[in-house]
Specification:
heterodimer, A: about 260 residues, mainly alpha, about 0% strand, B: about 240 residues
Chain lengths: ~260, ~240
C-alpha cells in the first residue's frame, strides 16, 4: 500500500490508468443505457416506467458504496496516516452526495406514477435522506477549518461515526413495514429479479462504478495539483516577504 | 470571570472512579455557579414550544396531535444549543489541554463531562416536558411514556452531541456546523421518542420504543466518549 503513498507515483499510475477507465466507463454506460431503454423487457405490472430502475438502483448502490469507501479511506488515514487516503476520502464525498441526490430524485420520479406520491416517510427513503445529510455534514466539517489537516482528521472521525447508517439503509426494508421494494438482488436466497432485467441492471451498475472510479481519480489528481500550487504560492510569498524585509544577518533576522 | 474551583491533587495518580468524580464535580460546580447558561437553554425550550400555538393556532385537537413531536424537536434543538458549553469554554482557556494531559484516560474525562452536562442540560428537559405537554394538551396517557422516553433519550443526545461538539472545536461557524453534524444522528432518537408517546396514547404500549431507546443509550455510552476523545486529541494536536 505504501508503494502508492508517493503522490508522484500515484500521478504517474493514474495518468496511465485514467484513459482506459474513461473509455471503459463510456462503453459500459452506453451499452447499459441501450440495454435498459431498448432491450430489457417492460415490467408485467409497471410497464415501461420500470426503466427508471436502471438509473435509480445503481445510483443507490453507488451512494452506499461511495460512503463505505469514504469510511475505509478515513480509517486508513487515521490508522496508517497514509497521505493519499485523506485526499481520496475528501474527493469521494461530493461524488457520493451527487449519487445520493440522483437516487432520491429518480426515486421520487418513479414513486409518483407507482405509489402516487413524490415522497413518503418510509424507512428506506428516510435513511437515504439521512445519508445525504451525512455527506453534506462531512463536506461542511472538512471545509470548516482554516488548517486543512485538522479538517481532514475531523472529517475522518465523522465519516467513521456515520457508517452506522449503512446497515440501517440496507436492512430498513426488512426491519420495518415499508412501501419500498424489499431486497430483490442482494439477498440470501439469490436474486428474485428476472435475468432479462438483472443483466442490464448489472451492466449499468458496473458502468456507474467505473464512472465513480474515473471521476475519483480525476478529482484526486486535481486535488494533488491544487496542493502543489498552494505550496508553490506559499513558498513564493515567503520568499517575497524575505526580500521585502531587506538585508538580513547570518541568523536570518532583519538588519 | 469565574475562578476555577481548586482541586486537591493527590500525591499519586487517582483511581479511575476518583478521577471521574473529580472531573464531573468540577463541571457541575462550574455550571451551577454560572447558573445562567443552563437556565437560558431551558428558557429557550419553553419559549420555542410556546411559539407553536401562535403559529398553528390554538385549536386543542391540532395541538394535541402535534404536541409530542413538537416537544421532542424543541428538546433536540435545546440540546444542540447547550452543547456549546461542553468543550468550547475549556478549549478556549486551555483547561481542556490540561485535562487531556492528566493521568486519567481522556475517554473517562469526556464521559464525566458528558454526565455533568446531562445532569444540568438534559435531565431538566425531561422534567419540564410533562409541563409543556400539559400546555399543549397532549393526552395524559402519554405523560409517563414522555418522561421515560426523554429520560432515556436525553443521555443519547448528550453523548452523540459530544462527538459533534468535539469535532467542531476550533472550526469556523462551529454553532451551525454542530447542528449540521449532529441532527442527522439525532433522528433515530427523535423517531423513537415521539413514537413512544404516540404508542402510549394509542394504547399499543411504549415498551418496544423505550427498549430501543435504552439500547441506543447503551451503545452510545462506550462508543461516544471514544469518538469524542479521538476528536479532542485531533483538536489539541
Amino acid at each position: 500500500m505504501h508503494r502508492f503513498a508517493n503522490p508522484t507515483r500515484f500521478m504517474r499510475a493514474s495518468a496511465l490508468v485514467l484513459p482506459w477507465l474513461a473509455v471503459a466507463t463510456a462503453l459500459l454506460l452506453g451499452a447499459g443505457l441501450l440495454l435498459a431503454l431498448f432491450v430489457a423487457p417492460p415490467d408485467y405490472q409497471q410497464g415501461e416506467s420500470v426503466r427508471i430502475m436502471y438509473v435509480h438502483v445503481p445510483a443507490a448502490w453507488l451512494a452506499s458504496a461511495a460512503y463505505l469507501s469514504l469510511a475505509v479511506a478515513s480509517a486508513i488515514a487515521l490508522i496508517w496516516r497514509h497521505p493519499l487516503a485523506d485526499i481520496a476520502a475528501q474527493e469521494a464525498a461530493p461524488i457520493g452526495a451527487v449519487f445520493t441526490a440522483i437516487c432520491l430524485l429518480s426515486g421520487s420520479l418513479w414513486g409518483k406514477p407507482m405509489w402516487g406520491a413524490w415522497w413518503v416517510w418510509d424507512a428506506r427513503l428516510t435513511s437515504m435522506l439521512v445519508l445525504f445529510f451525512l455527506y453534506l455534514g462531512y463536506i461542511a466539517l472538512v471545509n470548516a477549518f482554516d488548517d486543512e489537516e485538522r479538517g481532514a482528521r475531523a472529517g475522518a472521525i465523522l465519516a467513521l461515526v456515520g457508517v452506522v447508517d449503512l446497515p440501517i439503509i440496507k436492512f430498513s426494508v426488512d426491519w420495518w413495514n415499508t412501501l419500498h421494494q424489499p431486497a430483490s438482488v442482494f439477498r440470501l436466497g439469490g436474486p428474485t429479479i428476472a435475468v432479462s432485467m438483472l443483466a442490464p441492471l448489472l451492466v449499468m451498475a458496473l458502468g456507474f462504478t467505473l464512472f465513480f472510479a474515473t471521476v475519483l481519480l480525476l478529482r484526486m489528481r486535481a486535488a494533488i495539483l491544487a496542493r502543489k500550487l498552494r505550496a508553490l504560492r506559499r513558498a513564493e510569498a515567503e520568499a517575497a516577504g524575505r526580500f521585502a524585509a531587506g538585508p538580513r544577518d547570518a541568523a536570518g533576522s532583519v538588519l | 470571570m469565574v475562578e476555577p474551583p481548586s482541586m486537591h491533587l493527590p500525591a499519586s495518580s487517582p483511581s479511575l472512579g476518583r478521577a471521574f468524580c473529580l472531573v464531573a464535580g468540577r463541571d457541575l460546580r462550574l455550571s451551577l455557579r454560572q447558573g445562567g447558561d443552563a437556565a437560558m437553554v431551558l428558557a429557550f425550550f419553553i419559549l420555542a414550544v410556546i411559539l407553536f400555538p401562535f403559529g398553528v393556532g390554538p385549536e386543542p385537537a391540532v395541538l394535541a396531535r402535534i404536541g409530542s413531536g413538537v416537544i421532542w424537536v424543541t428538546a433536540l434543538l435545546s440540546a444542540l444549543l447547550s452543547l456549546d458549553r461542553l468543550f468550547l469554554t475549556d478549549f478556549e482557556d486551555g483547561s481542556l489541554e490540561a485535562l487531556a494531559l492528566a493521568p486519567a484516560p481522556l475517554e473517562l474525562v469526556v464521559l464525566a463531562k458528558i454526565l455533568a452536562h446531562w445532569l444540568v442540560s438534559g435531565l431538566p428537559l425531561a422534567i419540564l416536558a410533562p409541563l409543556l405537554a400539559l400546555i399543549l394538551g397532549v393526552d395524559a396517557a402519554g405523560y409517563p411514556a414522555l418522561v421515560a422516553a426523554m429520560a432515556l433519550g436525553t443521555p443519547s443526545l448528550s453523548l452523540i452531541g459530544a462527538i459533534g461538539a468535539a469535532l467542531s472545536l476550533g472550526a469556523r461557524r462551529s454553532g451551525v456546523l454542530l447542528s449540521l453534524l449532529v441532527l442527522p444522528l439525532y433522528i433515530p432518537v427523535l423517531i423513537l421518542g415521539a413514537g413512544a408517546v404516540e404508542a402510549a396514547i394509542s394504547g399499543l404500549g411504549a415498551r418496544p420504543h423505550l427498549l430501543i431507546l435504552a439500547a441506543i443509550a447503551a451503545a452510545a455510552l462506550p462508543l461516544a466518549p471514544l469518538a469524542a476523545a479521538a476528536a479532542i486529541r485531533q483538536a489539541l494536536a
